[in-house]
C-alpha cells in the first residue's frame, strides 16, 4: 500500500475525547442505538494467528525492480532451486501461522497457470512451463498446518483489457482460478496501489464483484484492503500500529486507495464495522529480494520491536520475507527470523503471573471469576457485571517478581470495549502507576519501567460496555 496521503481534518475522536466528555456508555447515541460490532468467527480465528508471512515473489525477484512494467519477458522468472517446503519450514519455526503470496503483483505476472493471461508461469522456463507456485505453496502449507493466503493486485500493467469494464470480469475470473483450486484460503489481500499517473489507464474496480467472488468461493477468507471489509491497512508500511487501536471503522467512509489512510491506524472508537488493522512490513528495505540488501535485513531486535508495536497494539503482523532467485528464503533472513523467535520465546515464553490469584472489584462489589484471566484460555474471560464500565482487577503473586511488560487481552468475541486504563504495582507500601493505555483489543503489550512487586492491578476507567478481559500476563524483557 503506497498512497500519497491527503491529511484530512476529520480525525477520529479517541481517548482524549473520552476523557474529556465522560464515560462512553450513556454518551454515544450510536452505542445506544446500534449493537457494538463483534468479529465474525473467521475474523476471530484470524486475529488469533497474530503473525503471518508475506511473500513477494515474481519477475521482480530477478530484475531487481519493485514495480515491474508488465513488459518484462516471462522468461525472466526462473528460480533455480524453488522449494516452497523450505519457506514453510522457516516460517513455521519462526512462529508465523500463515503465508500470503503475491499471486499477481502490479506487473500482472501470474504465479499460477492462469487461462486469463499470457503473462504467467506457463511461459517461463521454470519447471519447463509446467510449474505452479500456488499449487506447491498451498500443498506445503497444508502439510505443515499453516494458513494459505493470496495477494492479488487489481492494478495490472500487463493485461490488455486493463482500463476497460471487461477487465473487472477478467480479474474476478482470476480470483475464481486462485480461490477455487488450492483448498482453503485464510486471507485475500487486495492492494490499493495504482501508479498509472495522469495519462495512465483508469479502471473503475468492481469491488462488489471482487468481494462477492471471494465470499462465494472462500466464505472464511478475511479480505484485506485499505477499507476492509475483513481487515484494514494500518496506514503505513513501517509495521507499526497506533497506541490507540480500535478494531472498528465505518467501512462506507473508505475505499481501497482512500485519501483518509491517516485515520486507519487508530480506527474509529464507535465505528459500525469490525475491521481490525493489519501491519504489512518487509524484513528488507524492499518488498522483493535483492542481493544488495542481504546486509540490510532487519535484526532480531528490530523484529522484536515490530512485534510489540503491531501485535502488541491490537494489529496483525504480516511480515514480508521475499525468497531469492533460487526460490529459497535467503540465509540472512533465516538467521534474523531464528533470532527473532528466540527473543520472543525468552520474553514471552513464561507468564510470571501464572499460578497467581486474581480478584476483581466492579460496581462497588467483589466480582467473581477473575481467575479466568490467568487460565491461558482466550475463550474464557472475566467481565464486569451488567451496566458497570469501571473495574479493578488485581493479581496477587506468590512472591515478588521483576517484570517490565504487562500484556492484556480483551474477550473480543464480545467486541472491543476498553477505552482507558492504567496499570499499578504495589511497592514500598503503596500503589504506584506504572503504565497507562487507551485501547486493549485482542492484545495490548504495555511497556512499564522495570518493576519488582507481588501485586499488580489494572484499573479500567472507561469502557464502551462492561469490560471483559480474557488474559493478563506479566513478562520480563531483557534490555536490548
Ligand atoms: C504496495 C505495493 O505497491 C508494493 O509493491 C507492495 O506490494 C506493498 C505490500 O503494497 O501497495
Protein architecture, described:
This protein is of the alpha/beta class and 480 residues long. It folds into 2 domains: 2-348, Glycosidases (TIM Barrel); 357-475, Galactose-binding domain-like (Jelly Rolls), CATH 2.60.120.260. The chain is 22% helix and 25% strand. It is built from 10 helices and 18 strands. The strands form 3 sheets. An 8-stranded parallel barrel has the order 1-2-3-4-5-6-9-10, surrounded by 4 helices. Strands 11, 12, 13, 14, 15, 16, 17 and 18 form an 8-stranded antiparallel sheet that branches. It has a two-stranded antiparallel sheet with strand order 7-8. It is globular, with a radius of gyration of 23 Å. Residues 1-2, 66, 191, 193, 280, 287 line the site of beta-L-fucopyranose.
Keywords:
single chain, 480 residues, alpha/beta, TIM Barrel, Jelly Rolls, 2 domains, 8-stranded parallel barrel, 8-stranded antiparallel β-sheet, 10 helices, disordered N terminus, binds beta-L-fucopyranose
Could you give a quick summary of the protein structure above?
22% of the residues lie in helices and 25% in strands. It is of the alpha/beta class and 480 residues long. The protein has 2 domains: 2-348, TIM Barrel, CATH 3.20.20; 357-475, Galactose-binding domain-like (Jelly Rolls), CATH 2.60.120.260.
Indicate the low-confidence ranges by residue numbers.
Answer: 2-32
Question: What's the CATH superfamily of the largest domain, by name?
Answer: Glycosidases
**Which percent band covers the strand fraction?**
25-35%
Helix content: 10-25%
User: What is the CATH C-level name of the largest domain?
Assistant: Alpha Beta
Instruction: List bound small molecules.
Output: beta-L-fucopyranose
Average pLDDT rating = 92
CATH topology of the largest domain: TIM Barrel
Can you write the helix and strand succession as a string?
HHHEHHEHEHEHEEEEEHEHEEEEEEEE
Question: Helical segment tally?
Answer: 10
List how many beta strands DSSP finds: 18
Strand order of the largest sheet: 1-2-3-4-5-6-9-10
Number of domains: 2
Described by strand count, sense and barrel closure, the largest sheet is: 8 strands, parallel, barrel
**Overall 3D geometry?**
globular
Amino acid at each position: 500500500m503506497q498512497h500519497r496521503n491527503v491529511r484530512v481534518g476529520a480525525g477520529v475522536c479517541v481517548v482524549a475525547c473520552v476523557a474529556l466528555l465522560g464515560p462512553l456508555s450513556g454518551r454515544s447515541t450510536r452505542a445506544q442505538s446500534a449493537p457494538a460490532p463483534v468479529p465474525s468467527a473467521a475474523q476471530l480465528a484470524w486475529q488469533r494467528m497474530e503473525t503471518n508471512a508475506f511473500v513477494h515473489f515474481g519477475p521482480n525477484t530477478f530484475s531487481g525492480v519493485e514495480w515491474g512494467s508488465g513488459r518484462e519477458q516471462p522468461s525472466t522468472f526462473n528460480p533455480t532451486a524453488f522449494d516452497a517446503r523450505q519457506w514453510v519450514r522457516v516460517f513455521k519455526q519462526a512462529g508465523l501461522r500463515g503465508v500470503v503470496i503475491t499471486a499477481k503483483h502490479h506487473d500482472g505476472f501470474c504465479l499460477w497457470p492462469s487461462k486469463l493471461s499470457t503473462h504467467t508461469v506457463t511461459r517461463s522456463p521454470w519447471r519447463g512451463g509446467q510449474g505452479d507456485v500456488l499449487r506447491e505453496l498451498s500443498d506445503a502449507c497444508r502439510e505443515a498446518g499453516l494458513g494459505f493466503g493470496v495477494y492479488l493486485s487489481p492494478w495490472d500493467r500487463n493485461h490488455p483489457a486493463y482500463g476497460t469494464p471487461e477487465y473487472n470480469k477478467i480479474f474476478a475470473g482470476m480470483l475464481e482460478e486462485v480461490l477455487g483450486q488450492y483448498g482453503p484460503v485464510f486471507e485475500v489481500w487486495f492492494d490499493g496501489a495504482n501508479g498509472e499517473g495522469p495519462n495512465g489507464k483508469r479502471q473503475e474496480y468492481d469491488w462488489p464483484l471482487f468481494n462477492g467472488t471471494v465470499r462465494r468461493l472462500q466464505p472464511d477468507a478475511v479480505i484485506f484492503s485499505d477499507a476492509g471489509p475483513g481487515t484494514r491497512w494500518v496506514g503505513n508500511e513501517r509495521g507499526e500500529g497506533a497506541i490507540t487501536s480500535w478494531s472498528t471503522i465505518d467501512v462506507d467512509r473508505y475505499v481501497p486507495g482512500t485519501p483518509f489512510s491517516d485515520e486507519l491506524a487508530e480506527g474509529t472508537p464507535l465505528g459500525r464495522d469490525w475491521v481490525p488493522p493489519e501491519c504489512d512490513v518487509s524484513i528488507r528495505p524492499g518488498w522483493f529480494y535483492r542481493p544488495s540488501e542481504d546486509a540490510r535485513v532487519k535484526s532480531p531486535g528490530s523484529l522484536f520491536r515490530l512485534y510489540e508495536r503491531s501485535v502488541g497494539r491490537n494489529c496483525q503482523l504480516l511480515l514480508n520475507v521475499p525468497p531469492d532467485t533460487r526460490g529459497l528464503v535467503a540465509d540472512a533472513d533465516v538467521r534474523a527470523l531464528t533470532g527473532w523467535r528466540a527473543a520472543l520465546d525468552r520474553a514471552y515464553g513464561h507468564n510470571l503471573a501464572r499460578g497467581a490469584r486474581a480478584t476483581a472489584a466492579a460496581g462497588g462489589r467483589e466480582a467473581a471469576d477473575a481467575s479466568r484471566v490467568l487460565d491461558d484460555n482466550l475463550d474464557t474471560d472475566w467481565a464486569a457485571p451488567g451496566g458497570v464500565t469501571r473495574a479493578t482487577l488485581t493479581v496477587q503473586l506468590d512472591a515478588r517478581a521483576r517484570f517490565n511488560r504487562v500484556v492484556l487481552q480483551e474477550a473480543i468475541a464480545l467486541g472491543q470495549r476498553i477505552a482507558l486504563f492504567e496499570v499499578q504495582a504495589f511497592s514500598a507500601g503503596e500503589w504506584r502507576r506504572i503504565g497507562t493505555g487507551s485501547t486493549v483489543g485482542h492484545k495490548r503489550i504495555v511497556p512499564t519501567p522495570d518493576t519488582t512487586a507481588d501485586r499488580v492491578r489494572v484499573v479500567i476507567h472507561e469502557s464502551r460496555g462492561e469490560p471483559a478481559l480474557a488474559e493478563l500476563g506479566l513478562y520480563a524483557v531483557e534490555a536490548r
